[in-house]
User: Fold these one by one.
Assistant:
Number 1:
Amino acid sequence: MPVRRRGTSASRLARAAPGETKVGGVEVPPTDVPPLASVESGDMISTDSLTRRYGDFTAVDDVTFTAEPGRVTGFLGPNGAGKSTTMRVITGLTRPTSGRATVLGQPFRALTNPGRHVGVLLDASAQHNGRTGREALTLVALTMGLPEARVDHMLDVVGLSRKESRRRVGHYSLGMRQRLGIAGALLGDPEVLILDEPANGLDPAGIRWMRDLLGGFAGEGGTVFLSSHLLNEIERIADDIIVIGGGRIVAQGTREELLRPSGTTVGSTDDARLAEALRGQGLDVQPRPEGGLRVDAEPVQVGATAAEHGIPLTDLRPAENRGLEEMFLTLTADDNREKAAA
Amino acid sequence: MSALTTSQGRTSTVAAQSPRSTHDGEGTLGPIRGVAFGRLFRVELRKQYDTVASRGLLAGIAVVTLVVFIIMLFTNGGDFSWMNYLTASVTPLSILLPIVGIMAATSEWSQHTAMTTFALEPRRGRVIWAKLLSSLLLGAVLFAVAVVASAVVHQVAISARGVDGDWSLTWWTVAGGAGLLLLNMLTGTAFGFALLNTPGAIVAFFAVPLGVSGAHALIPAWSTFFSWVDLNETSAPLLAGQSLTGGQWARLAVTVGIWVALPMLVGVWRVLRREIK
């Protein structure tokens, strides 16, 4: 499978346009598009001005983004931001009020045997409590027309023992349900994974396991689209990040773009003189309350200036970027205020 | 290979078991074909007996039927015809088995498995058909079991209790009994789809016909009206062992329209339209 990186967040925004079903410039009815046609066009998951209203409440508001092969795309937002609704619309479980969503270039409902193309886990606790874990997977395998041996293979992949698989799901911990859900999503050997809060309920080792698993999946050319309400979780796993708040996308780009440090923290034996020297070069310099300076420049430029003036440095490093965190905290705080008011 | 043991004592071998290990070279999973209706049908049939609740219910039906047979063997010297035994076993079946049909329709929503089911087959109408037809098949299979079981019990009565064998079985006993059972399965499934809630649908399935029959008994002045809406009354002739009259057919058709077709229409509309959470 060809793995290509395309565009930056800005160009991706602009590129998402109607006519995704055009193959070679010819309009093709959706059902006639071969499932893999869109691999050529690069967008494994694509939404275009997706909007979903519930009465006066707009849960998803004009959401446009793409998720690309070979990448883990993280969907970050506080609870109630519209992540799950967006994912349900993408998987055809909820109708959009307006706009459209495609997976592999087609509406989800038009996919042939969707489980073989797209692994979906939207709610790990959405399992029949009275069925065994193994039986739940067997039903999925039967629906897709897969052999029983595939169930055993996936149980091994997600680390559920045979004994555990014969217990009823009602007795599973949330972590075990997540593993079972992941097994179900991977069962059809899909190219795309859509996972809503897959790390919920996993212990730290489980989260690391999940990260390795999904990273490996993307590394082999698969597309992973996952949501989380935890910034540090998304930071560690996602290559591309889409931030949603109040139903609207507030930021999107690669992890590097969004987390790039935009300054330098520096300490020296004479901060006052260093600050003066840096300001002399027209740089913005702020003293840090805990000592040292924060400079709006690359570390190399700060170091060179210090050397020029013969000021010994005690500390020089890229500033930690608080931008995404600040934005995320603001979104979360807004959300909390709404809840407090209600 | 990175092996790590979680605090739950679980070893995960990530590198050794790649999730996409079967993907290369067309894979061992074979070419991707559409979801055949036969597969959906088998899956929906399997869902009706693979949960604790449905297995418990089926075991309960078996126990109740067995108790009925035993009581009959020790009543009146066990002197009942094959037809008597059959009718006696169809009654508990037609009362209890529709709960399996109800759960087939509702459990996807009560247990939230609809998210998985409809992500694997987004064409919801096909899933509805699969549920409907598989619950009818389950009813037909269990009716056949009842026919065989009642024959065995009748033979036991002949051998052990020394009664005279009466193997006469009118075509109408069989057709009427099977018809009543399948009609009840349909009613249960229709109520299930209409309400999409297991306890609610079970209560409605038993309470609504009972309420109508009760009102029928309480308001004799409206007897003519109720004779057209009381499903218990209009379906009773099915077990009488003889052909229905034209008037009986008409009344049965009208009540089936009200209590089966109408909830089914509402239910199908709801399932097709409903947002799945």
Number 2:
Amino acid sequence: MPILEEPIGMMLNVKNYINGEWVGSKGDTVRVTNPATNKVIARVPISSKDEVKAAVEAAKEAWPEWRRTPPLARARCLFRMKEIMEQHFEELSRIQTMEHGKTIDESRGETRRGIENIEVATGIASLMMGYNLEDIASGIDEYLVRQPLGVFGIIGPYNFPFMVPLWFAPYAIATGNCIVLKPSSEDPISQIKIAEIAEEAGVPPGVWNLVNGGRTVVNGMLSHPDIKGICFVGSTPVGKDVIYARCGETGKRVIAQCGAKNFMVVMPDANIEKTIAACMTSFYGNAGQRCLAGANLIVVGANQSEHEFHAFYDRVVEKFTKAASTIRVGYGLDESVQMGPLRDKTKKGRVVDFIQKGVEEGARIKLDGRKIRLVGDWPKDAFLNPTVFEEVAPDMCIGRDEIFGPVASIMRAKTMDGAIEMIHGSQFGNSAAIFTQNGRWARDFKYTVECGNIGVNIGIVAPMAFFPFSGMKNSFFGDLHGQGQDAIRFFTESKVVIERWF
Amino acid sequence: MSRQEATTSAVIGFAEKLEGDFSDFYTVLARKYIENKEQFLSFAEDSKKNKIFIIRTYRETISDALEACFCFEGLNLEDFAITKTIGKDVSRSAALRLAIGNEERAIQFYTTVANLSTGLLATITMAFKRIAEKRKNRELTMRTLVIRA
């Protein structure tokens, strides 16, 4: 199939956006490469601590006026942002495919989910309301107001370059805070576009700032006393030992959404055709680079004889493997493609190492994604095809660690309790799903499983913008989550007023 | 496009092209057969509206968490391509029959993708069904025109 037109022609020189100005950085630059074509599409600066400081100062200066801006006026900026995003929907989506590698359907889905967060935040006049009660004592009334705190830092991951920062940013500014946002240096272009849109939509200078870079920028944010809170999405080691720990030391609020190893539990009564279809998106969508991606598939033999269980397990494995083997891998701007490349060669190398470990640990490889078959003639550097392992034990590397790639580990459990035990044995608790037609099993699963996001016959348990994106155990550090009402509470302080007039 | 290559993006792209082809087709008919000019022009205009409606519905519905790349597996979009060229000396009744054939193929396309898209959010299925219904009405109108021709 022909490739959809690429929106990035000439190489972009990415700048920082501080106090309403696009400013060059003094730092070195790194290349942003389209993982499907290997073409360099941008150069992004690695900014210094001073540049972070300048952004925070701009945000701090803009804050008093912004917090006094009526909520409806703040919301109108967001309405305009949404409108501009709708106008540029296709361009924004194709940029994600170019800078990240995901398929065009996935990119458009990401654009939509990002916009939905802006839509929810436009309801700020209602969302931010407090509550009150008259006559708590004679002639005394009491009420609660939610007030913004000041400046927040947002640190985005590479796997959803457009959407993830929008789990936080619209709510932060709608509630009257200012932000300093650091996109992933691997794919920063989507956030550059969003900052341009914020500028066009009339978000005042200093309210929305963007600083490109790496660790130095993160450390600059973490150590800055004027940053009141940090929103982070990334790996568990960084989220736990750096972000959460440092925010604790400096008294900052924190949302740290981290790694995962998500289990999909298939019960004997599941609708297998639909389950397999849901699993393909779950395990291989976004090339498995998703914190909600399916990683371990547990086939459960509840109420089945030994013979029936073996037959059921074999049927699931065969169907899963067959479906995975037909997934078309290639450049995401080719509309026939169902899975794009990994973000880069290094990430592919890490996944390949896991596949090798799986083989060495004795798991049976049913489909080897290292044998690369592509739709189109593209450099194979970052591509992998889907991999399927069976007879995986939960304590094997591939059953235990986050691979973040298109690898499925199929396991078996005699009972649902056995499956839940496996889930609870994992250090992660991001999401888990059960595939069944049995309400009782589903209810027990929802009730018992220690994961932030639970699915019943759902492959990707992604909460909509008006629900919090939850997470437990080593998948989440903090108290309140991104999106919806949780985000409103995170970005505001509850102030209680008790009032009497003599 | 061969069998098993239809992602949602490809299906929407096909629908977009289909409506564009219909719009061109009826514009040509309107020019050629003055007796039904207004009717054909309204069909051409309606196809433009359908195109906008489909794209809008898709963009407002698509989510990264849906089985967008997988739900149209096995669909061969080439089966639904329409004939949009009309020969010089084709009679009005022959042209109308050609149009009916095209409409039938489009109805079949929209009905098929409506059934296959139930794994997506309801609005996409509803959009396809709505256009299939509109086209059924159009086909009836066309048949009436054939009888009158």
Number 3:
Amino acid sequence: MTKKYKNSWKAYAAWNYEQEIEELNQASEQGWQLVRGGCFHSRFEKNPEIQYRYQMDYRKIRDIGRYLETFREQGWEYINSTFNGWHYFRKLYDPSLPEEEYEIFTDRESLKEMNMRWVRLAMIIGLVTGAMALIQAVRMILRPDLPRLIMMLTFAIESVVLLRGCHIMKDSDPEKKRKGSQFFIPVFLAVIILGSAAFIVLEEGRPYFQLQSDASSVSEPIVDDEYSSFQIRYKDYYYMDLELTASEPATLRIVDEEGNMIYEGTSTDLHEKDTCLKLTKGRYTILFSIQSGYHLDMRIE
Amino acid sequence: MKKSEPMSESYYYILLCLAKGANHGYGIMQMTEQLSGGAVKIGSGTMYGATGNMMKKGWIQEIMSNEPGVERRRLYRLTDSGRDALREEISRLKRMLTNAEGV
């Protein structure tokens, strides 16, 4: 006789683990018995003749022998563990036994200990990502640009979701641990992955344009020499550092493809620090006029 | 003065069950149910956590049973400091009960 198997790709948030247990019990009632539990993927075997009750534990096991024996002696069969420390157990269901027979945490303290083990870890990650979001926010105020905005939002979402999860997990009301949409975790992960990918792509797409030039004197005045050019891949704020010193006034201009002036500076001593340039996609040309020796150092990021 | 914290019900019953002699997890569970008339149950998750924590505190010790014919089973044994902790808890509970009777 061949066995029938079924895969499930349901992902549950840690703070909805009671919902997962409930749904495993319901699946068992319908003849689908869990053979391998996971954070994103679970496997079931068809067997309508038996019914199990499931339980989940979260901990780092120090003594696996003692751990499994403690569960085995009360009729719990170990199924498997996930990579991040959730352990699945099942016990054959006997309707004549009281419901307490299918509990593994029988006092408030030990259940709270389990919840707090998860909360401690999630709290650290939540606070670290929260701090990262704040750092990005400060940098956004000082020098706004698109990659920073995306990174800030990604960190902020991650932090808020994890800290909210900690809050629910800490709550002793089990009802709160039983509500959750099955789309929450996939959407949350997609937001984090897309946010991080967008940050990398946008950050890679930024120019790192640097120009350094010196001359002790020039033989004849240079007027609007097309000195150099750089490419902008997407519309955003970019920042220019510029230092231009010359004995006679010199002019530096940045123009776009249509010849519109983006920046113009004329002086014997030009100093720009973090000057914001609002640029759209396209090529920009740097025009330079000089009639004496000079020193030029510019950078656009 | 160092004041010990009140014990959880599970800790208390585990120590109580071990006061008469070493026992394994299942034995402790059954004895607890019997002693409490079914009011206190100790599930596997609670048992593993409580015994682990009390071993760390040095209140109980793990020993291997060498009974013939029986699968090698872990037994827990009360230590001297575990017995002290239990005595302290009992006198705390007695005091509380006496206080209540005086009201």
Number 4:
Amino acid sequence: MIPAQFDYKAPATLDEAVALLNSDLDGAKILAGGHSLIPAMKLRLAQPQLLVDIARIKSLAYIREEGDQILIGATTTHYQLESSDLLKQICPLLPECAKSIGDVQVRNKGTIGGSIAHSDPAGDWPAAVLALDADLVLVGPNGERTVKAENFFVDLLTTDLQPGEILREVRITKPSGKFGHAYQKVPHPASGFAVVGVAVHLALNDDGSCKSAGIGVTGVGVKAYRARAVETALAGTSLDDNAAGAAVAHVCDGIDANADLYASGEYRCHLAQVHTRRAIQAAKARVQ
Amino acid sequence: MKLEGTHELDASPERVYQCLVNPEVLQRCIPGCERLEQTAENTFAATIRTGVGSIKGVFNGTARLQDMREPEHLRLVVDGKGAPGFLKGSGDLDLARTDTGTTVTYTADVQVGGTIASVGQRMIQGTAKMMATQFFTSLAAEAKTAVGEPPPQHGFFRTALRWFSGWATKTLRKILKPQKGT
């Protein structure tokens, strides 16, 4: 339970953090909330030479509106997202998702950027940013670039972040018109991680039919993914039980479901179908 | 833990088989393999530095080839351990001829223990699948070259890069460490 020796730097600005990270691409690691990295270090599963702590860069934690966008800084904690009155009004999926993460201590320290960049196969934020079709802003030694959430998650614990790059901001287009959100999750009884987690964003036409759907699924595969087949099947329907039931049958299409001691792949897929249906129903019921 | 999978390769079963029993090819294909030496007939010792995301570890182990029936079947028995845990198990590889090349089907039964198994249990299967895919992607590139031809560029480049970055890191650390102490 004692980590290997490492150096620690707490830069004051993001530029400094990028420079420090690039001073030792092999051995340096970004520390934000530390709720995945520190346990791995204590078990010596991860032994970085240098920790670059970005949680102390105050200008990286924010939630604000800008035009039709919601901008969220990478080191915004789960608790800040959970308790944001602004988000509760304009994008309730985010506070709902935040509320389901771990426990109070985890939510007070853990950050949205850390969770997304770590890309735990059972992390909650990846599902939410996929459902909302978020853009992720990455900064590296050669400047900034923006990646769609869908293209960001590459494989198990593997993202499009290149060595030397830091996730800086999450950008979400403000939901408009008639829309409803829901996050449904089966938490692992010990860890609180999602055995299955489904985030749903529904946009409705004036007649109540489905204009478009965004569905992010976590816990099932090696990475969180967008259930495109379900989204397509829902579009244009009245979102009644028949339509939702038929659509959710496709939630595991093309996915090699995880199996571990707690849940087999088949069980996970079944849970994913049940909870996608429930999330669709809940999101529909909340449409304003 | 049971592992299963199939991979399509664009080369004849004979060529794929040759690659699978060639230590030099294997070293280039196994993700993070730093050393692979033949210690006896069909027995190899290996050092593998591998990981996903921030989780990394060095494993030392042996691999034995059994039930060798060229070019359709071989059995691999592995036993390894490292700081994060240990693994041992065996797997069967079946090579079937297809119109475009070879289908490799593998089934393996592997026991993983130690820290990695107690805390990383939910990710072990995903990690294994990811590495198998990396291995077979590299193997597919290797198998496409004819016997005696130089190995594929990306494999060579990666090996050279890995060697260089390892060397550079070690050298830099050697230079930097004493100064830190003063």
